[in-house]
Amino acid sequence: MSTNAPRSWIDELARDQDPLGRGSTAERVAGVLRDRVTEGRIPPGTRLSEEAIGAALGVSRNTLREAFRLLAQERLLVHELNRGVFVRTLDRDDVVELYRLRRLVEGAAVRELVGAPERVIGAIRAAVEAGERAAADQRWPDVATADLHFHRGIVQLAGSARLEEFMLRIHAELRLSFHVMDNPQRFHEPYLTRNRELLGALESRDTQQAELLLSVYLADAERQLVRAFEDAR
Fold it and tell me: What is the C-alpha to C-alpha distance for residues 138 and 136, in angstroms, rounded to an integer?
């Protein structure tokens, strides 16, 4: 378990200080930290320093503690007595539940494909292309981020802002599970082709094919992650 957050992501938080300074709220601070988790910048087990993060973002300890509380409710952080606040470490059961939710939400979103606006398909296409560029540069953490953006686009097919907000939290938690894979390239690389194939079905508005591809896709990913967590015991 990490005892301190890497300086690199802490330093990057300073870029978010100006927007936060204009009417900063605990929700906005929570959003910044959630984004860093979703990007894979803050791994499970990282201890979050109130002093370092508060200084980087220019927020008070009370605001930061409220942000921590919100993220704990989202199951991204845990408070350990006399030790501090840590990024949560997931287990096998978390993966099973997360993928159950993904099947329910993403599966339902794909069934809204016919009426979805072209801009949503364009966002999904952009995520596929971003993942392929990252893979060409051997930037596997960025491939994982692009993959989550791809699935965020699938959720957007449903046209529900509330559903999108909910799944942002689920995808952040899901990103924590990816850290169990000891070889990110071996895990993520096959899904680049599958994302491209699924994109083809979405572009042609073939709901039946998209549903089938997504169902098999999610089942395979869940199986791989569950196996990795069982092996890590």
Answer: 5
Going along the chain, which residue ranges are E strands?
47-48, 77-80, 84-87
* pLDDT single digits (tens) 35-86: 999 999 999 999 999 999 999 999 999 999 999 999 999 999 999 998 999 9
Q: At 24, list the tokens.
A: 């900063």
Q: What is the CATH number of domain 92-231?
A: 1.20.120.530
Here the tokens at position 61 are 């300890």
**Nearest residue to 46 (alpha-carbon basis) of 5, 107, 17:** 5
DSSP state of 4: S
Specify the DSSP class assigned to residue 49. Answer: P
Lookup result for tokens 């973002």: 57
How far separated are the first and last CA of the chain, in Å rounded? 15
CATH of domain 7-87: 1.10.10.10
Count H helices and E strands in the chain, helices first. 11, 3
